[in-house]
Amino acid sequence: MSPDQTQPASEGDVYVSPRYLAGLPGHADPSFAPVAHWPHHHLDAGPCQLVITSPDHRIRIGWFGDDYDTWVISAAEDPVSEPRWTARINQNTPPEIVQALTSALAAEWTEDSDTFLMSRSWDRTDTVKPLLDAGWERKPLRHGILEFVSPDGLAGAGINVVSTGKNAELVTLWAGPAGWGTRAEAIFTARTPKHLIAATAAALVDPTPVLRYKDSLHPRLAERAQLTPVEPPRPATPTPLDLKQAAAARRPAAAAPATRSVRRWTTSTPAPVAPAGARLGPRR
């Protein structure tokens, strides 16, 4: 798929593909766009800088900015209850992937809804169905982890099938080589609705490249990703009428024909004067 040409070129000088190797561009704007109309609470103290809540405060999106767990997203049955589920997403995760989760939450929330609280499926692999549909390989069960890996080996998902407890971290989506500045991770606790994890996984495999400034990319990500320079838009193809008018403008103007005053004889025109010395005809 070609890069999204609707993105402003001012937001980067290269398109990065696959998108899961793009990292965080220095801001998280895409992740907050779906909930821009929800209440924003800016915090002056503590590691959490911003909390965005649904209007009834059942959904909370925390932005920590400088910490490893950059986003902490949770949902509860009421504003004061313990979260039913939590997603912790680190500082190397592209915000375009987080946007898929916040978009799903924004679309599902109403004052009477609970679809963002409950799973409607018991099949663990429903959480990673988009990965399977994209051709990711399912690995054999190992140490209680069911793993799925991308064809390039640079992204994957793990499902913990042995841990118990409502707060157990059961599903992990990851991308990039291991390391503090390169490995992206999104970790979901046990009761996270499977369709919300699947929405996040679908963004992970979305083939649309994302814009980044090349110099801001971690070198280990840049050397593994495909980088395509942003090119200025080409001028519109001229129409046949444009070509005709341009040719006419270049053609030199034809020289005007020389004009000569021709004397016409009429009955009122006096006879020409004979030159001196001319012989006159005989008079009758």
UniProtKB/TrEMBL annotation:
The UniProt regions of compositional bias labelled Low complexity, in chain numbering, are 246-258
The UniProt entry's coiled-coil ranges are none
Name the residues that span the membrane.
none
Every DUF317 domain range: 53-107, 150-210
Region annotation (Disordered) maps to 225-284
Its domain of life reads: Bacteria
What is the recorded name of this protein? DUF317 domain-containing protein
